[in-house]
Specification:
about 350 residues, alpha/beta, TIM Barrel, Type Iii Antifreeze Protein Isoform Hplc 12, 2 domains, two-stranded antiparallel ribbon, 12 helices, elongated
């Protein structure tokens, strides 16, 4: 898989800043104006992209009350899949306008398709990338259609066995598309911290030889920060204006102020991670002046012997290295020396 992809004018690579995606999901609460407000509030957050979801209740499931179509427990207890998706979908007639609005504010905007018609629709309105949701990783016909577009494909792995990931990558490669990023994900809403298994991020990166990111449904920012430290190059989090506004995804969504602060922390962490080297920074090199070295700590006369009473290892670091301490003991002073003199070889007989 390629180690560099482009979404609009933004490059994502192993050396580029982390790419941050704000997942709007159902947090528009079926209001076009609220959807635009979310995007507007994100414009100064530091995010790179807003993500939508492209489905209807009829394209993602069927209206059926059989037990397997019912949701038991969790945030959506008592719903059927159909009733949940009726409340949560983003009307397709909004999406082209939302893409244009996001672009006007300097943000990319793309979506997760949930069937073949959604893929075609996303192409019609020229979305720049595709995000494959965890539950769709095994929809091979849809993956094939997506891969054929040649556009970047970001795949969540929240329900995937190893063979599911291998198959999805093989499908993309067979269709001539290696612009693929895998996202570590756990499909629980919200997700318990103990289920995240972030140590899989470097394992995924090495196993599949591709860029890896995180689709995060935990509360707070610490998991996202841990993922960045482990090599994630994309972070995706659900966002809303206020959780108290409600909605199917509100309970595990970040408020925009929290999301903005998470991005600030990510950028600080990126600075702190630096590069793989033993070289000192300029600040560290300057700080070496404060390290210990050998100093004259009592006035000495020419010919007087150096002893533990008149030379010591002290701060600062202007004198001889402390490794020479034993070698100098017993030698004699070549000249008179004042207390506080940094020791140098030309002072030693």
């Amino acid at each position: 898989m390629k180690k560099e992809i482009h979404i609009d004018n933004r490059m994502i690579s192993e050396t580029s800043p982390v790419y941050v995606i704000a997942e709007m999901s159902a947090n528009h609460l079926m209001s076009f104006d609220r959807a635009k407000e979310i995007i507007y509030r994100l414009k100064d957050s530091g995010t790179d992209a807003v993500k939508l979801q492209t489905y209807t209740a009829d394209t993602i499931t069927i209206d059926c009350n059989n037990p397997e179509f019912q949701i038991h427990g969790g945030l959506w207890d008592g719903e059927t899949l159909y009733s949940l998706y009726q409340k949560a979908y983003t009307p397709w007639e909004w999406q082209e306008d939302l893409v244009k609005y996001a672009n006007s504010l300097g943000l990319s905007c793309f979506s997760s398709p949930f069937d073949l018609t959604a893929v075609d629709f996303m192409c019609e309105i020229n979305m720049p990338a595709f995000k494959v949701a965890s539950y769709e990783i095994n929809d091979i016909p849809m993956l094939q259609r997506i891969a054929r577009t040649g556009k970047p494909v970001i795949i969540s792995t929240g329900t995937a066995y190893l063979e599911d990931i291998e198959r999805a990558l093989a499908v993309c490669k067979e269709e001539g598309n290696e612009n693929v990023v895998l996202l570590k994900c756990t499909s629980a809403y919200p997700c318990p911290y103990g289920d995240m298994n972030l140590k899989a991020i470097p394992l995924m990166k090495n196993t599949f030889d591709c860029m890896v990111g995180l689709s995060d449904h935990t509360l707070g920012s610490e998991v996202a920060l841990g993922a960045v430290a482990l090599g994630a190059k994309i972070i995706e989090k659900h966002v809303t204006i206020k959780r108290e506004d409600g909605g199917p995804d509100a309970a595990f969504s970040m408020e925009i102020e929290e999301f903005t602060d998470m991005i600030r922390q990510i950028r600080n962490l990126e600075d702190a991670l630096g590069k793989t080297t033993f070289e000192l920074t300029d600040n560290q090199k300057g700080a070496r002046n404060g390290t210990r070295s050998l100093y004259v700590v009592k006035d000495m006369k020419k010919g007087e012997k150096f002893t533990p009473d008149n030379i010591k290892s002290i701060r600062p670091g202007k004198g001889l290295h402390t490794m020479y301490y034993d070698k100098i003991l017993g030698s004699t002073a070549r000249t008179d020396l004042k207390k506080g003199t940094p020791l140098s070889w030309n002072m030693v007989e």
